[in-house]
Design brief:
Blueprint lengths: L26 H5 L12 H5 L29 E9 L10 E5 L26 E5 L5 E7 L4 E2 L7 E2 L2 E6 L8 E7 L9 H5 L2 H4 L3 E4 L10 E4 L2 E2 L14
Parallel strand pairs: 1-10, 1-11, 8-9
Antiparallel strand pairs: 1-4, 2-3, 2-7, 5-6, 7-8, 9-10
The structure holds fe (ii) ion.
């Protein structure tokens, strides 16, 4: 009898990911787990599903400039963000769910936790979108460049522009949550969340400007390939908001 092909997803390699306790990122000190991690044996149900309901995702969900459904268009610099989702062998991860969320062009989230931030909301911008990778593992979003925003980690702290990404992978047990940054952002070297990832893996979270992605008279373009596990995996996100 042929053995069924079962992929094993071990614990993430923490040499590539942020430590749970990273004092420069203040809130990690208060909430990091202080007991040893417990390994859970992965069985077929963890590695094959069930996954979210892919069928309910529409093409419009991937355009954050219009998916608020108001008939208007979000304010800000329109961009296309695209790339491939790859596994540890460099193989494309097809038909997987990607969800993103971000601040608007003024650096404000459409979320009650951000209601004290004195930056304007954009009624035409929800700040969230989703899509499914195609057969080559390619995803593609249209959105706007998120603004930097202040946060109370240290004096005059500003997060660099970033887009939060959740990549489901083949099953719920493989979900990766991380952040995408923009190359050349002067706030990157000052950001404790970005810097909590080890130096050798930080750049895996940085998207590059790609002129081939740009659309004339419409949008500039960024490319970001995401490796969801293995030695080249994008570092995980320790942010709680
Ligand atoms: Fe954020």
């Amino acid at each position: 009898m042929t053995e069924p092909m079962v992929r094993h997803y071990g614990p993430k390699a923490h040499t590539d990911h942020p430590p749970f306790n990273y004092p420069d990122y203040r809130s990690t000190v208060l909430r990091f787990p202080n007991k040893d991690m417990v390994s859970i044996v992965q069985t077929l149900s963890e590695t094959t599903g069930p996954g979210p309901a892919w069928t309910e995702i529409a093409e419009e969900d991937a355009d954050l400039t219009t998916n608020a459904g108001t008939g208007g268009t979000a304010l800000g610099q329109r961009i296309i963000v695209t790339g491939r989702v790859l596994d540890e062998n460099g193989e494309p991860v097809a038909n997987t769910l990607i969800e993103i969320w971000q601040a608007n062009a003024s650096g404000r989230y459409a979320h009650w936790r951000d209601e004290d931030h004195p930056a304007p909301l954009d009624p035409n911008f929800l700040g969230a979108g989703q899509c499914i990778t195609d057969g080559e593992g390619v995803y593609r979003f249209t959105t706007i460049v998120p603004g930097p925003y202040p946060w109370p980690n240290h004096r005059n702290a500003w997060r660099p522009s970033h887009i939060h990404f959740s990549i489901m992978g083949p099953a719920l047990g493989t979900r990766l949550v991380t952040q995408m940054y923009f190359e050349g952002d002067p706030l990157l070297p000052l950001d404790p969340i970005y810097n909590s990832a080890p130096p050798h893996s930080r750049e895996r979270m940085v998207a590059s400007y790609d002129h081939d992605v740009t659309e004339e008279n419409w949008a500039t373009g960024y490319r970001w390939d995401i490796v969801i596990r293995g030695p080249l995996a994008a570092p995980t996100d320790q942010e709680d908001g």
